[in-house]
């Protein structure tokens, strides 16, 4: 755990140095404090803002997650996983005169250990969402975006993740049940969430005073998961098919604009041929018969993603996703929660949140393995933001029946998620 304390201490010291200080005995007239910088290391003497005004906007960030299992697993252990992000957005209208166009390139690197594996927690969803997909450096975004007809039509093409545009959801919670685009949480063998990118294109039509409708086509290829050429925008051979998602979003506002909402419903279809999760071609369990799994053409699913401000400070969310039981080992996930901002008057930007959810093992798989089939998770966190560029989020997680199997001990995790924008 020493890297946790070294890094956390270094970030905290940087935050204190960056914050304005008051000396005892100061008697100078009060002067309005400048707006705090959104970057921990400041504006580079104004150069960063000047670059952004000219069309070059850099992004640098860090996220680290610590986890310790007080109960559950085969042993008590602690783990630290983290992610570094470096990106740039190019405003092509400012730079080269292409109206309403931009280009995005982002590189990520993940390092560290995973408590779910190290302590044999047996969970379906990781207790450190930032871990996964190989601890390596990757090209996560490499796309071109163009708007037409005064933003009526929005087109995007390049290397990107499906969750950027479909079933998009924040990753504020540390347990993966409540983080990111949930289709990728249960169908991750072909729907790739951040930091994996795949070649694809997305076309969105914005509907005034309603929301939007969009559709995409993404290349399906397990080679994207590998580490070979992970930093290069190459097209891998061996594609199995095309993933086609469609999403409709209603984005109302209530209370005179003070209560925004977002209600998204979507479906997807993958044209690939995939193995049955239980049966062989004769309808018998392939782990008994020894024959190859039966083949199915096409994989599919559907989801909803609802968010609504109940008050200006209180937001509720509900995410639910299902996938077909022929090809998906986990075939459903539901998560709901509340986020409240400004619990204390002295900390108006801090927030507290609570969520509960479940991930379901396909009944056919559960029956074959003799397990109950549903894992239940809950998490509560508090976010302390000493500056806009820095946040610390201690959290408590509880996982009931990890892996959908009552033979696994229930898990109680103490976590800490820290992030900084540089």
Reported by name, the CATH topology is Porin
In the CATH hierarchy, the architecture is Beta Barrel
Coarse shape: globular
Residues in β-strands, percent: over 45%
Q: List low-confidence stretches.
A: 1-27
Alpha-carbon distance between the termini? Answer: 24 Å
Describe the main β-sheet briefly.
16 strands, antiparallel, barrel
N-to-C SSE string, H for helix and E for strand: HHEEHEHEEHEEEEEHEEEEHEEE
**CA gyration radius, whole angstroms:** 23 Å
What's the mean pLDDT score?
92
CATH superfamily: Carbohydrate-selective porin OprB
Give the strand tally: 17
Strand order of the largest sheet: 1-2-3-4-5-6-7-8-10-11-12-13-14-15-16-17
CATH class: Mainly Beta
Tell me the domain tally.
1
Describe what this molecule looks like in 3D.
The protein has helices spanning 2-18, 47-54, 92-96, 115-118, 183-186, 286-289, 363-369, and strands at residues 56-71, 78-91, 101-112, 137-148, 153-160, 198-207, 211-220, 241-250, 253-254, 259-280, 293-309, 314-323, 330-341, 351-361, 374-387, 390-400, 411-421. It is mainly beta and 422 residues long. The chain has one domain: Porin (Beta Barrel), CATH 2.40.160. Strands 1-2-3-4-5-6-7-8-10-11-12-13-14-15-16-17 form a 16-stranded antiparallel barrel. β6 (198-207) and β7 (211-220) form a beta hairpin. 35% of the residues are buried.
